[in-house]
Amino acid sequence: MADNADMRKIRILAAGILALGLFLADSVLFGMGKMDSEIPDEISHDEQDYKGNPFKKTSPKYRLKKPSGKPAAFYETWGYVSQKYEDEYDRSSPLTDVCYFAADVNCYGELISVPARSKIHVDDGVRVHFVAICDSRSLTHFVISPEFPVRDRIIGDIIAAAEEFDGIQLDFELVPLRDSALYLDFISEVKARAGEKMISVCVPARLKRLSEDVYPYSEIAAACDRVIVMAYDEHWSGSKPGPVASTEWCGKVADYAVSSIPPEKLVMGIPFYGRTWADTQTAGAWYFSGANRIMTENGVVKVDYEDDVPRFSYRTEVGVTGYFNDAYSVLALCRLYESRGVRNVGFWRIGHEDPEFWKWLEIR
Fold first, then answer.
1. Which element (helix H / strand E) includes 226?
2. Which of 15, 91, 236, 267 could form a disulfide with 344 if both were Cys (CB 3.0 to 4.6 A apart)?
3. Is 295:313 a contact under the CB 8 Å cutoff?
4. CA-to-CA dists, residue 240 to 54, 181, 274, 320, 348, angstroms
């Protein structure tokens, strides 16, 4: 009898534990469902993994504005693809033109790093442009001046290298001040020898025509088929922190560009990238008294000698400020240019973008 009574108590206890377990399980499931329903609908697309798993610790804590309204629409949409990053280009992106970046000119006046057209795969109707750069101010003078034989050779090499491309783009950003006329002649010669290929030229952002302008918009537009206005780097690595391309600044750039370049030739450049700035500069070269000053200011108490050279170290706190572009900010620039009557835009560069942006771009 005692054994039966004990067994009966055990069964009652087990049933109670099971009932409690089911109750707790229902409570947890209900609680999880409630927490999931409380996640706001406006949560950023960058946090979709968070919406699926509200307990994920690595999810971003910030919120980004979501675009609304209608997509921006342009007649031509240009995008830059860099060599070695070809896989970052998605053929489904709404682009009419792809610029393959880039062949360069070395110190011997030779065309190097020539991109292979076969590495870029695009859908029918998408044009691919061969981009040539020259990143030396002094070398640029010798490349574009008819006084030197390198000019004719470089033009011939560019034409030959671009044989399988639909267009040629010149991105010479370091033309010397006195060589404006020489550069215009260089562009005209490339255009004359390129046959039916589209010739485009990159120019820096301007708010107005300078008194001595190496990149006169009107004259360059007359010498080529498209002018890419690089409306970015309003703030750069050596400036104070700020947007790479603010809407206010870009509006002024667009106003001047629209007044100087025919609408069918103008392509307004838009940045996908951002920048960060630190409020403390820790790298530098120091004279003796300067080295002693920073050591004292930062509480250095020990100096080691490494190969008879004194060495010190310390830790310091650095504040960082960043400006970047997301789908919302890039779309804002697109809509700004639409309002200015701009027909064509270009993006630097593919792979840097917020993928959400492509949902908000259409080709007319």
1. strand 226-230
2. 267
3. no
4. 38, 34, 14, 12, 22
Give residue-wise pLDDT tens across range 196-241. Answer: 999 999 999 999 999 999 999 999 999 999 999 999 999 999 999 9
Nearest to 225 by CA among 173, 256, 259, 267: 267
173 noted as active-site residue: yes
In this prediction the pTM is 0.83
CA atoms of 38 and 40, how far apart (whole Å): 6
Phi then psi for residue 312, to 5 deg, are -135, 165
287 Cβ contact partners less than 8 Å away, ≥ 6 residues apart: none
| Catalytic option among 173, 189, 219, 338 | 173
Q: Is the alpha carbon torsion for 297, 298, 301, 303 positive or negative?
A: negative
